[in-house]
Design a protein that fits this description.
Length: 253
Amino acid sequence: MIVYRSLLFVPGARSDRFGKAVAAGADAVIIDLEDAVLPADKDRARSETLTWLGAWRGRHLGLRINSPRTAFGCADLAALAGSAAAARADFIIVPKADTAVDLEIVAEALGRKIPLIPIIESGRALSNAFEIARQATGGVLFGGVDYSASLGADLSDWDAMLTARGTIAAACGAAGVPAYDVPYLDTSDTDGLAASTRKAKAVGFSGRACIHPDQVTTVNTAYAPNEAEIADARAILPRWRRRAAAWRCTGAR
């Protein structure tokens, strides 16, 4: 399973920005057909996105479809399943995944194995976090904006979101998949982004979504290993190799 430090969203209605997003330095790019596209533009955005994806030959590109509980989401799945673009996307973001059934619907509709990253965006979804994470073959994204709105909570207050973040991190840890944090909405506040990202990493998140290219470097830096972590890894590797060699010899006998 690939773990990304940064995932950069780009609006699905702006195909002229797809190439720029790919070049921004994020570990992965997500073309967004949901929140970033107005209802009147959904059909055009879907068509242009699938055409662009069909010609894509790179890697680490994902697609956020609309919720499979909506007509727009059903249309996304139908178009994607019958398109060459289905083989080009490295993962699918499933928004408003209230239960694991949402992931089953997407997987069965696409008819192929592709990593799915559900977004937990409500109290109901959070109550099913462990079940959702077990079905999340690509990790779980915290949809903090909609989650906080549904509770009437303050997204900018770290303590107010700590229970949600802790639950998602624990669910992902139990399932063995990465947890990805909500985008930091103030794109001009680099210090706030860095501080919040360090806290999310400490809680157990493996990476973070970004909504502006300028956020990518800060997020990548926060999730990059420091010198002490690199030294620890280098010290552990020889011991691990010796144990692996001993295990192979014992197994051979």
